[in-house]
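[step 3/7] fold_predict: job queued, chain A
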Amino acid sequence: MGLDLTSLRNGIYKPIGIEPNSPEMPFVDVDLYLNRAFWEIQNKFPLKEKHVTSTFQTTAGIRNYDVSYPTEAVLHIAIEEPTRKEHIPLEKITANTYESIYRDDEEEWGMPTKFVLEGCIVRFWRTPDQEYTVIIRRLVALNDLGVLVTTPNVPNVWHEIILYGGLWRAYIDIGDHVRANNIKLLQSELINTIVPTEAKEEQTNTSLAHVEVLGRDY
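[step 4/7] structure written:
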């Protein structure tokens, strides 16, 4: 069932010997230790929970689409050829290359084969000639722990690692560097036991980490 926020907090207060939510270490401080550990894990490791899928429809003659989130989060883009149903990766190009090949001519419309990402905009070339369903797989930041999110949205094996990450940060703040270093070493040992499995799963799912543009059947 994993560790909820109460268990994670107690896992910091108990070894340090401080009463929960005491003036010297209130919940807000402990939650920040835990979230800092959570942010570090999200940044360093390819957690599948950071991958989300969303969709939108293209319109014939429209090449630019505002997806309302930074496009550096997009992992990859591919297109499904409407007749053969084969997935064809789209080529990512620079804005300069895009402008050099773009022509404002309806005869240039067709199934997209290239794309460029700018800000929150996905720009296709060729300009879509019909309605396509665009399926976007991208990375997101997982919700912070707090009143609304009481359990980390990652596999249970990471919960203890988050706890140790919060605990060594707490020891640092109270000046106990020896215990902080010991806990940090323990955290590293736990990470080393699970990262190879996570990496294998990530490699297996690499082919799924993309945006697919699906043509309609007629």
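[step 5/7] annotate
Confidence is low (pLDDT under 50) at residues 204-218.
The helical segments are 5-16, 27-44, 95-101, 159-174, 177-204.
exit 0
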